[in-house]
Amino acid sequence: MALARRVRRALTVLVALALVGVGVYIAAVVFNRSDTPVVEGCTALLGDAKQSLATDQAANASLISAIAVRRGLPPRAATIALATAMQESKLRNINYGDGAGPDSRGLFQQRPSQGWGTEAQIMDAVYSTNAFYDGLVKIPGYETLPITDAAQKVQRSGFPQAYAQHEDMGRAFASALTGNSQASLTCTLRKPDAPGDPKTLRSELTVAYGAMEASTAGRSVSIPADGTRAWSIAQWAVANAKELAVVRVDVAGHSWIRDGNRGWTESAAPNGVVTVQLAEAP
């Protein structure tokens, strides 16, 4: 019996030592590794203030803003739309409503029972965004109204003052995504886990901005554009970089490079064209 106890004690000590060794190894790997964990997300600067969104929210914000550009609407329209969608759905295309509007759906929580369209139409983010803008442009002087007043005239919410809390976010992302603030939107991302598809990128660009010229060379897509439109497209590409596996965007003397998460830097990128580089196979 004494021998058996000594054997058990010896085994217990060996197991404990092994566990300690494993713990030391794991700690060494964690604390001495060169790659630090990446928390993904997107930010937009306006002045000295920085606003943040998750990557899926930023992608939806880029679509809403691109449709404003496509329609020739002022950045203020995109600001109102973004603040509204943040309040209504957290900028996510959700397929459910709440107690006040059980049939509400989509980015703007529009209701089929209130004449916004069918459920399938409302769940189409392009349709629902255009439906919101259709209502907004009918409001005289909406550009000069307070955000919450303009949004309420379209939405007729039971909480009309709630939209105001999202004004700063709306202004920052709308300004960047309409191209009025240059090199102001960036996303912190992990490395792509799949190659990018130029056909998919061009298709999504068409959905957002309408038909446009573009050329493809390998996994690089070039879009002729200048001024605010160029910066709108460039920052749209950054906002969609996670989903589309974008690794670099070049526009008007600046480049956004995904690797290293350095944001925008000055470069030799020419004027008059936006070049979007997609990931190769990992």
TrEMBL record:
What is this protein called in UniProt? Cysteine-rich secretory protein family protein
